[in-house]
Structures are given as C-alpha cells and as structure tokens.
Design goal:
Layout (H helix, E strand, L loop, with lengths): L1 H22 L5 E14 L23 H17 L11 E7 L2 H8 L10 E4 L9 E6 L4 E9 L3 E2 L6 E2 L4 E8 L2 E9 L11 H21 L4 E7 L7 H6 L2 E2 L10 E2 L3 H5 L5 E3 L2 E3 L2 E5 L12 E7 L20 E2 L2 E2 L9 E8 L1
Parallel strand pairs: 1-2, 9-10, 11-12
Antiparallel strand pairs: 1-19, 2-4, 3-4, 5-8, 6-7, 8-9, 10-15, 13-14, 16-19, 17-18
Helix pairs in contact: 2-3
C-alpha cells in the first residue's frame, strides 16, 4: 500500500515538475548574473604617498614585484572569467570587488586576456581607509547602464574611547539593468580586529549607512530593486546583518521594507567563503530588496544563489589544506587567488 502511495505521489508531481522546467526555459527567460569577489590585496608595485602600501613594493616585506603583480592579475581574471558561465556565456554582468588599491589596478584587471572581450567598465572612488584599499564595481555595458554613483562615508567613533577611525566607503551605483532600474551598494565593512564583540559596533555603523540608503529608496518606491553586496566581515546571523540591515533569511519572514538574504540558508547548511581556525564563515554576501523576490514587481527576479567553490581555488596540502588558496601565507608567496571565495546570484526575466 505504501509503495502504491509513493508511486501515485510521484505520478501526480510529474506534470508540475515538467511545467516548472518549462517555466524556467531559456526560450522564455533571459538569464543574467551579478557577483562579488574580495580580490585580497590587489596592490600595484608603485609607491603611493597616500596609501599604506609599504609591504607591496619591490623592496617591501613581501617583495611585491612586477612578476608577482602580473601573475596575481591573471589569477583574478581566471576566476572572474568562469563565474556564472554554467548558465550564461557572458559570465557575471556586474561584479562588486573589494581590497583594490586604486582605479589603475582595476584597469589592468579588465584588460586581462581572460575577460578583455567582455569590455568591463569601472566605477571606483578612493576611500579614506587606513590600509589604502577600496571597493569598486565592474559592469558589462551590454547589460548595465549607470546613471549615478556616489561614495557614502562610514563614520567610526569608538563608543568607549571616543577615538575616530577610517574605513572603506559604501559605493552606491544606480542605473538600468537591461531596462530595470536597480540600485547597488558595494561595501567592505570594518574587520573583526580586536575581537568580534569588541568591533561589532563598527560593522553596525556600516550596516546603518546601507540601511539608511535603502530606506530612502524604498520611501520613494516600495518595490525598488536594491542589492547590497560585499565583504561584510559578519555572517548572515550576526546583528549588523540581521538586525541593523534587517536582512531576513526567509522570504516569508519579511515585513515592510525588510531585505532578503539568500545567503542565509547556505550559511546554515555549512557553506562559507573564507576559513578561520578550521571553521567556515560566510562574510561575502549579496542581499536583496523585495523587488527582486516579489512577482508583482516584475522584471528581473532572483533565481539561484551560488558560492564559487572549485577544487583549484582551495589549498591541497599543508596546515591550511581545504582553505581558500590565497596569494600569501605570511611572507610566503603561494601564487594563489584570494583568501575569499566569490559569490554570485542568477536572475531571470521573461523575454
């Protein structure tokens, strides 16, 4: 009897599954991808008086020379070239990046042979970060046309000592994504230096800036398509993300003006983008407004969430076996990629 019920259930489900596959057919839908990647200290080899780049000079601690720089650029381009190509040959239409020294390193990156044919354009502002690293946005003009860009500072003042600190700005870019107006924020929130709890206030400050921008946009258009992405230095369950930013892990939990965090389930299932003390964190996140998950909004809608985790992006031996295969461990040049794995989202839109 139980076998009969199971077979009957499968038979009843088959029409629905067939419809679902047809409904997602590339004959009926356009596919596009947006991603984020922490490039881990993409510095040039030139001494800049306004940048804390002493380690990344030919005679600095890391002996950062032209050969290493060229290899690092090629490695970054190799990764970017393969993001999202399982569903679209164009790869990521838009890519947020962090830990870049200046615009020039991004110009060198988009000129790399592996991605040159995509004609990525650049949005970048210099940040007041004490390490001299910035965030940026790369985009393919065939998908995205920017109309406005601005750097929003994150004011940091230690609540205990009153001491001021400087961190990366929040990069805001608006424009049209294949006809849909969208708003993008790229951030690299303050680190956990000094301990997770002791530094939580700083990430809450960065989250507050993003939340304020989102509130302003949603006040004008409740179905505005907003995407917050970056290395948040917190997991989806931490206060800065879940409480300050109001990023919910389930669509059904969302209330008015809440955001949706599609990385939540990945994190709960043990997925991560960086490893520390033999545990994975999912600091690299992409968080959406309701306009990307509400059918009533139309246009581009979220389809899939991915962490790009390939065997060649992980170390295969040594004490850090299984960790992301990074450029340096201490002072030792490994010629790897980054200490973070990239993430990306697929979106569908009816043709």
């Amino acid at each position: 009897m139980s076998k009969y019920l199971i077979l009957l259930s499968i038979a009843l489900c088959m029409p629905f599954l067939a419809y679902a596959q047809k409904d997602r057919s590339t004959d009926e839908y356009k596919v596009a991808a947006i991603g984020f990647y922490n490039l881990e200290n993409l510095f040039d080899t030139i001494d800049s008086p306004t940048t804390n780049d002493a380690d990344f000079l030919p005679y600095g601690r890391l002996q950062w020379n032209t050969e290493k720089y060229v290899s690092k650029q090629a490695n970054m381009a190799k990764v970017i070239s393969q993001l999202a190509t399982e569903m679209t040959p164009d790869g990521v239409a838009i890519l947020g990046v962090s830990e870049v020294e200046n615009r020039k390193v991004l110009e060198d990156l988009v000129a790399q042979p592996d991605i040159r044919d995509r004609h990525y354009q650049i949005v970048h502002f210099d940040s007041p970060d004490e390490r001299g690293i910035d965030v940026g946005l790369l985009y393919q003009p065939k998908y995205f046309t920017p109309s406005n860009a601005k750097a929003y500072p994150v004011s940091l003042k230690d609540p205990k000592t009153g001491e001021e600190d400087f961190t990366r700005d929040i990069l805001y870019v608006s424009g049209t994504f294949d006809g849909d107006p969208i708003h993008i924020m790229v951030g690299h929130w303050p680190s956990r230096r000094g301990g997770e709890s002791a530094s939580a206030w700083a990430r809450a400050a960065a989250a507050g800036v993003c939340r304020s921008i989102a509130d302003s946009l949603l006040a004008v258009d409740p179905e505005a398509k907003i995407l917050v992405m970056g290395d948040l230095n917190d997991d989806p369950t931490n206060k800065s993300v879940a409480t300050v930013l109001k990023a919910r892990g389930k669509v059904r939990q969302m209330k008015d003006k809440d955001l949706y965090n599609p990385m939540y389930d990945l994190y709960k299932n043990g997925s991560g983008t960086l490893a520390y003390r033999d545990a994975w964190n999912l600091f690299d996140q992409m968080i959406l407004s309701q306009g990307f998950v509400s059918k009533s909004a139309g246009g581009w809608q979220l389809y899939k969430t991915k962490v790009f985790r390939q065997p060649w992006l992980l170390q295969t031996e040594g004490a850090f076996r299984g960790y992301p295969f990074r450029t340096f461990v201490g002072d030792i040049f490994l010629n790897g990629y980054s200490d973070h794995l990239p993430v990306y989202l697929f979106f569908l839109k009816k043709k």
